[in-house]
From TrEMBL:
Keyword Metal-binding part of the UniProt annotation: yes
Binding site for Zn(2+) 2: 125, 160, 385
Active site as annotated: 94, 159
Biological process (GO), any one: amino acid metabolic process
Protein name: N-acyl-aliphatic-L-amino acid amidohydrolase
A molecular function (GO) term: aminoacylase activity
Gene Ontology cellular-component terms listed: cytoplasm
Predominant place of localization: cytoplasm
Membership in a protein family: Belongs to the peptidase M20A family.
């Protein structure tokens, strides 16, 4: 029996499942079976699991309750120069709900087929990354390695519902300040080609409801100035803009979804009866704006479209991200140099993009820390939030190898001028 704290020691429960399976894969499948599924995630199970691993690896372990029932476990590997800024490896514990009838296997069984594809909710988004961080650190520790900078792994709740009771609160806590973060990694997306996608920024999500007020009356008459006529104008302006952005993306092969403004009408409401012309109708829009767009000018455009639709057309924000910080991908940047240099040494092809949706990286960047979104899954279809989400075990294991090179490189970035 190996002693407690020895990084090669694994619990009996994990080891006994399949003697032919790589133990890292077995651990991944164990984590996938924990039902941290929204809207009622079993975070206790995940926190216990992560604490157990922290103890196995001899890592420092703390828990920060950011609000009732929302705990962030932090596993820390102290560097040889703990005064230097640290490396933050972040992942979220929760996963999105499933439509079980559309799955070929139970999404919480982590079934592995004959080709090594592991089917489970969270296989790509993003329990793979959590275990890859852990297993890379396990291997580095087992080899007796240590690095100047401290490495922290944080496992946050509620990313899938916007992070408002997770990372958004956590970055404001003194415990987060005490981590003294220099650089962070968080989630990215799979890439179906040989390349790996790296996200250096995100679009700003704007969620707005446009309310159109108009004259009511009997449904059999030509009422003047109706809410529906105004809503029609609003929808036409918004969707014409949508179409132009869609065309711009289609016509320029250098552009990705992260480079254009995406807009969708996602909800419609109003009306009480077939024969009553309503005095109010509402449309909700999900708008995602790239960091290169002037937000003030864009809002002025929205206002103009609403004004042009007629009297009594107003809008209200339900989400309005304003931080357009991007992380440097210049060779002169020490963090990017360390990240891209390690990737180059592994002959990895990188594609740098703007993330088309919103992740917890936006809170990390807004708090002033450089962050890259990176989930090391190439030759893999993008299946996050989809039915039959899976990850191949060889791709999963390759991701551990990648982190075993990335972590040393990042945790060995020489002291920056501000740190001397
Ligand atoms: C704006 S809070 C919601 C966050 C969610 N994130 C993802 C990755 O789907 C989204 O972009 O809709
Ligand atoms: Zn995610
Ligand atoms: Zn997600």
């Amino acid at each position: 029996m190996l002693p407690e704290g020895d990084p090669t020691r694994r619990t009996e429960k994990v080891r006994s499942q399949d003697p032919h399976e790589d133990p890292s894969v077995t651990l991944f499948r164990e984590y996938l079976r924990l039902k941290t599924v929204q809207p009622e995630p079993n975070y206790d199970a995940a926190v216990q699991f992560l604490e157990r691993i922290g103890a196995e690896l001899g890592l420092g372990c703390q828990k920060v309750e950011v609000c009732p029932g929302r705990v962030v476990p932090i596993l820390s590997w102290q560097g040889t120069d703990p005064h230097l800024r640290s490396i933050l490896l972040n992942s979220h514990m929760d996963v999105v709900p499933v439509f079980e009838e559309h799955w070929s296997h139970d999404p919480f069984e982590a079934f592995k087929d004959s080709q090594g594809n592991i089917y489970a909710r969270g296989a790509q988004d993003m329990k793979c990354v959590s275990i890859q961080y852990i297993e890379a650190i396990r291997r580095l520790k087992a080899e007796g390695k240590c690095f100047p900078r401290t490495v922290h792994m944080t496992f946050v709740p509620d990313e899938e519902i916007g992070g408002h009771m997770g990372m958004e609160l956590f970055v404001k806590r003194p415990e987060f300040q005490a981590l003294n973060v220099g650089f962070a990694l968080d989630e990215g997306l799979a890439n179906p080609t040989d390349a790996f996608t790296v996200f250096y920024g995100e679009k700003c999500p704007w969620w707005i409801k446009v309310k159109c007020e108009g004259s009511p009356g009997h449904g059999s008459r030509f009422i003047e100035n109706t809410a529906a006529e105004k809503l029609h104008r609003v929808i036409t302006s918004f969707l014409q803009f949508r179409d132009s952005e869609k065309q711009r993306l289609k016509c320029d092969k250098h552009l990705t979804l992260g480079d254009v403004t995406c807009l969708n009408m996602t909800m419609l409401s109003g009306g009480v009866s077939f024969n009553v012309v309503p005095s109010e109708l509402t449309a909700a829009f999900d708008i995602r704006i790239p960091p290169t767009v002037d937000l003030k000018a864009f809002e002025a455009q929205l206002t103009a479209w609403c004004q042009a639709a007629g009297e009594g057309v107003t809008y209200e924000f339900f989400q309005k991200a304003m931080d357009q910080t991007v992380t440097s991908t210049e060779e002169s940047d020490p963090w990017w140099k360390a990240f891209s240099g390690a990737c180059r040494d592994m002959h990895m092809m990188l594609k740098c993009e703007i993330f088309p949706a919103a992740t917890d990286s936006r809170f990390i960047r807004a708090a002033g820390h450089p962050a890259l979104g990176f989930s090391p899954m190439n030759r893999t279809p993008v299946l996050l939030h989809d039915h039959n989400e899976y990850l191949n075990e060889r791709v999963f294991l390759q991701g551990i190898e990648i982190y075993t090179r990335l972590i040393p490189s990042l945790a060995s970035v020489p002291p920056l001028p501000a740190e001397c």
